[in-house]
Amino acid sequence: MAEAKKPNRITLKDVAKAAGVSIQTVSHVLSGNTKVSLPETTRARVRAAAEKVGYQPNRHAQAIRGGKTNLISVWMPVDRPIVTYMRYLKLISEFAKRDGYDLMVNCLQRNDALVEGGKPPTLYPVDGIISIDSGKAILEFRKIKGNDHIPISILGFEQVPYSDSVSWDLDGAAKRAVYDLIERGARRIAHITPDWILSDFPRERRRKGYTEAMESAGYEKFFIPTQGDTSSEVKENLMPQLKENSFDALFCFSDTIAIGAARALLELGIKIPDQTMIIGTGDYPEAADFQIPISSIHQPIEAIVEKSWAWLIERIAKPELPPRMTILDMTINHRSSSSRLA
Question: Three-class SS of residue 276?
Answer without folding.
Answer: coil
